[in-house]
Amino acid sequence: MAEQFDLSEFEVSMIIREMTLIDVPAILEMQKHCFPGMVPWKEEQLRSHIDVFPEGQLVAELDGEVIGSCSSLIINFDEYDDRHSWDDVTDEGYITNHNPDGYNLYGIEVMVNPEYRGMKVGQRLYEARKELAREMNLKSIIIGGRIPNYHKHADEMSPREYVDAVSRHKIYDPVLTFQLMSGFQLMRINPNYLEDDLQSGTYATLMEWNNVDYRPVSKRHFKTSLPVRICVVQYQMRAISSFEELANQCEYFVDVASDAHSDFAVFPEIFTTQLMSFLNEPSPGLAVRKVTDFTEQYIEMFTDLAVRYNVNIIGGSHFVKEENDEIYNIAYLFRRDGSIEKQYKIHITPNERKWWGISAGDSVRVFDTDCGKIAIQICYDIEFPELARIATDMGANIIFTPFCTEDRQGYLRVRYCSQARAVENQIYTVISGTVGNLPQTENMDIQYAQSGIFAPSDFEFARDGIVGETNPNLEMVLIGDVDLEILRRQRQAGTVKQLRDRRHDVYRIEYMKD
Q: Which domains does the chain have, with CATH numbers?
């Protein structure tokens, strides 16, 4: 029997999906119609949402058209004042205070195109939020809800009386009524929540939906510290006769780090140029190319040491020749599980260009480890504050800087900039340098270093912001602990909050690789 109709002509497609940058113009336009008279999102705020927590930004799409959206972030709600405002809990709309280790999903906006109301778009978005909370094993969803019909009753009712009347179904409020029907319970009423929400009298109902599937886990609830132990190697350059001699020195230091139960062992920049001492190549450019011939042995050595001694190793940096015949200065992360990552040096010094013809990398990377997210910025790169800010925004808590400087002035540039990055970004920074000399090696004949571990400058950290430092120009190790839990707390409640207090409305850093 032939079908009379082509049913595909009548089908529509309604989906809930993650927000993308392509959706931003449609969302900005939709917001003007949903919240007339209120200050709409800025494009950079939505871009920040997608960059910081893409899973929490959702849109409803009907036949290719965005007809609704919602935005969320994760927090530990106990860390916020009971009378917090929308700006407090969203970092003024940029959600850079998003905490992946938090317990609560905080909803900061839901909107539906007025032309499509009555299609349960809002309900679909709320259900998608609940499913996200279940998938991420979050304890609850918290929202600061508007009460847009309150202005009609403000003369005869207090906010509490109005909310009570809506709860008893004596008055209809398009937001509060919907939230109550969606399973949210009233926690309290916050004044001065949204300054431009005149319909609600700037009040908001703090509502919570509890995830009954939540499985308590020992995240940080009972933890007072999350220490990471770092062993910094201040490596002495000396003449050697084979790669095996270099390997023996490296194993000695990794063994020391392992005996101290270190999580990281950190070697200096281009310490493998020590190999030049037996290569008998007077031309610096050709000597560097000969050093690249040892890349495979270098990688095999540190991979073996990381696994065998159970230590994550920042393998200093090494000159590597790649397929395009260009030579790069690359720092490798050798994880103790046997996996390997690499970070190219982005800014090449005049000396590196003049003597060795080194090419520049072009990407900032942040690496997951069993001790949280870290970044590596090689020597000169730490002198460019934009790179550290980008890495911090990508989640880095520690920035490791292998360096190699020949005089005190060069060393102090690295040190002062590393300490500044720790303060600016509320992170820990680590510098590891070479000492000693290679008298017969052009452009590597003298070294100057004083390695160290640095912290932000605030009460819970070391008094002078120095976790520890080596003696200058002596081969030795520095072992120190940095506490990631203290770092997290200070970012939320420190004397100053550089990450939260940035003026996104005045300036921003745009990472071009995105």
A: 12-210 (3.40.630.30), 228-493 (3.60.110.10)
